[in-house]
Amino acid sequence: MARWAQEETDGTARGLSMESSHKDKKDKEEAIRHSTTIESLAQSEGIGLEDVRSLYESVLDKMKREAVITDFLPIFAARKVKEILRVRGLPRTGTDYP
To answer: Which of 24, 59, 77, 96 is most buried, judged by most C-beta within 10 A?
Structure first.
């Protein structure tokens, strides 16, 4: 009986470890997705990377608090950031902009 209890404990520990590993992988993938979105926005809008990052993270944090489904948040956050940038009329930093 002691061996069975040990195996059950070991199985549970491995299960938790696998869940943690899966969550870590999803977190890394999400971070990469957000970074890619931020870089793309900065480039397409001709705005400094740190300015876009700050605005995007602010918008994303608000959306995360209100969202039930979070799969499409990068898309919605990017749209909102573009809208905010257009309304603000921030000067572009790209060399291709007069």
So the answer is: 77
The DSSP code sequence of 34-49 is: HHHHHHHHHHHHT--H
Nearest C-alpha neighbor of 34 from the set 83, 95, 81: 81
Domain assignment present for 96: no
Question: Which residue from 78, 85, 93 is spatially nearest to 47, judged by alpha carbons?
Answer: 93
- For residue range 47-93, list pLDDT tens digits in order: 999 999 999 999 999 999 999 998 899 999 999 999 999 898 866 65
SS3 61: helix
Contact yes or no for 41/82 (Cβ under 8 A): yes
Q: Is residue 6 part of a domain?
A: yes
